[in-house]
User: Fold these one by one.
Assistant:
Number 1:
Amino acid sequence: MGDTLIHFKLNLKTGFFKSEPYILTITDESLTFVQSRKKSRNVINIIPCANVKSIAIFAGSPMELEIRTEKEAFIGTLQEPVDLYGVIASLEAVFGKKFSHVYNCHIFFIL
């Protein structure tokens, strides 16, 4: 496996109104999701970087991460504290044009 670029905590959506705490580790080769409950430290999923079609961070409160592959979508909120600039720099380094970050903007309509 490649060298670890960054790891951070997120609450990964696992159901309609359900999320679970995970640690996401990003290397040059893969994304690894490890359940961060005290009772278990099971690897839930390893995604080769080549399988990622798009990855995005939606900066807001809370910040949301979306990872899309051909068959699946992984969506979660980043747990505080998080080094947003470090996460963005690592994702840009690994995924290039597949990565985007979106800042929340408010649109007001004047009638």
Number 2:
Amino acid sequence: MTDSAPTPSIVLTAQQWQIFLESLYERGDKLDLREEGGVYHPRKEKVDAYVFSGHAEALRSEEVDGDIWGTLEDIEETADSEEEAWAKIVAFYLGRGCVLMEVLPEEAGEMPEQWLISEPLARRLGLLATA
């Protein structure tokens, strides 16, 4: 990450990321917490990074293809490098009420994953403190 990159609003270790994913369930097209307010929702389908990616606005991950160039085209931007493309994508979504989440790698020297998700989703899933 360059010095000019925005600071992520949410930072999770690889272990926290796995625990977080295990705490989720998906019903239809809605992602939510499996246990909330004393109500427990059984897991019918495992929520993994791929399932979570369907609820993200954009992502940069080794595990899940975030299609950075396709996303850049969708926001009608161009770039000369993947770094520049991702910076433009981040700026676009941060300007539209999204938050940047970073998942730190398990191994030193690996790049962290970055996910852009809507602020309401981040709050509903307990990633941001509620106001």
Number 3:
Amino acid sequence: MIKLKIFVLLCSLFLSFSLLADDYEHKQNKNHIYKNLDYLNLSKDQYKEIKEILIDYRKEYEKFYKKKAKREKELQELIREKKFDKEKYENIAQDIHQEALELEIDTLEEIHSILSASQRKKFSYYLWEWRVE
């Protein structure tokens, strides 16, 4: 019985180390270029679809940043006023954040639908690159 327990323990350790090694391999890719999807080995159809998504994403991103700049000016004006309107500041800041989050989610949802399971796993390691700030 002890031999069986030791065997199970060794097998579980080996399995966990192999899973960690897979994660470590992806995290240590120092040759990765920001928002470059070459590591996914996309098919021609996937490449075409994602290219269209990224073109739309860029247009939406530009619209968002123009809107964000206007909203940031409103925040600056609130700070300059004699009395600070906490509620109004909070609402504007939340609107900016919410809009950024929606843009991010919409884009990721479209990309997710195109990728295979293994591609999604690889993509997940670089998810931080796709955050809208």
Number 4:
Amino acid sequence: MRYMKGKDKHPNPTVVDLAQDILLRTTIPLDNHAALRSGFAGYPINPRWNVNKVRAWKTGRQLRQALQEGELIIRSSDSMLVPSDNEQEGISVCQIPTQPYKWMSCAEWVKQLFTNYQTV
């Protein structure tokens, strides 16, 4: 049997850090993890992305939506994003409040950057 790179039908799942203290086990390739995080964070789509990155971005958006609707929860033991039906199995879970992303102008961002900047 010949192994063809990139043609693995069942890749091993990896753990992705979607946001601070939110992890996800996924089979999405490493090249598309940034797009997945971007969709989860609520950023707009990048017009230069290929089809695979757009799919990862859409998956991130769907994960955020499912978290807000209570279909997914964050397991308190390991901060893993899991389906909410695991709560009935006796797994300790917690639902964190989700806040919409705050958009700011470039001037506001620079002002905030300078306020938090510390010289050594």
